[in-house]
Amino acid sequence: MRKLPILFFAVFIFSCKSSVPGDILPPKKMQAVLWDVMQADAMAENYAASDSAFRGLSKHVDYYQKVFAIHKISKDEFTKSLVYYENHPSRLKPILDSMQSFG
Fold first, then answer.
1. Residue by residue, what is the 3-state secondary structure of 47-59?
2. 64 near 75, Cβ under 8 Å?
3. Predicted structure pTM score
């Protein structure tokens, strides 16, 4: 009977794991990638504003690919991580909040 509370406590502790799954970018890396993606968006928008013949999202795609290469991740890894964090707002909020002081 004494083992039952210990078992419940152990299950509770292990179920409250605060780390993200192994195939998801860790918070610090996600923060850096998101920051660079935001900078890439700004650069692409500046390019589009300065080039009246510019059409489409080709600069966005080019810049995103460069960001992914710099961070040594794939588009799929980023997308999967972004979806994960969007579905776990309590984990996304600290990343976004800390980005205010990141730049």
1. HHHHCCCCCCCHH
2. yes
3. 0.74
**Percentage above 70 pLDDT, the chain:** 71
Helix and strand counts by DSSP (H, E) for the chain: 5, 0
Residue 101 — φ and ψ, nearest 5°? -100, 0
pLDDT per residue as tens digits for the range 13-47: 444 556 889 999 999 999 999 999 999 998 888 87
Domain ranges of the chain: 23-99
Are 27 and 94 in contact by the 8 Å Cβ rule? The answer is: yes
Reduced to 3 states (helix: H, G, I; strand: E, B; else coil), residue 5 is helix
